[in-house]
Design a protein that fits this description.
The protein is an alpha+beta fold and 92 residues long. The chain is 40% helix and 27% strand. It has three helices and four strands; from the N terminus they run αβαββαβ.
């Protein structure tokens, strides 16, 4: 039984080493002018590999995105929104 626990612990540590760093960015999104716009922006961002969470704030015209830095980048996120018709920039 002890060997099973050691193997399980080793697998957990190995999995942690494989996973990339999670980063959260807020994007300022242009052109969100109607109630369906946030849905389009969210779907565009969710299509990016490595994105784990997207929250849209229609009132503030922002998208907060949590993603794996080994799979996605800020440039990929802003390109996805721009390609969907909603240019964005990383909020500083």
């Amino acid at each position: 039984m002890r060997i099973v626990h050691l193997i399980a612990a080793g697998l957990l540590l190995a999995g942690s080493a494989i996973a990339g760093t999670t980063q959260t960015l807020t994007l300022d999104v242009q052109n969100m002018s109607c109630a369906t716009c946030p849905i389009t922006v969210k779907k565009a961002l969710q299509q990016i590999s490595g994105v784990s969470e997207v929250k849209i704030d229609y009132e503030r015209k922002t998208a907060t995105v949590q993603f794996d830095t080994d799979k996605a980048s800020a440039a990929m996120l802003t390109k996805a929104t721009s390609d969907a018709g909603f240019p964005s920039t990383v909020r500083k």
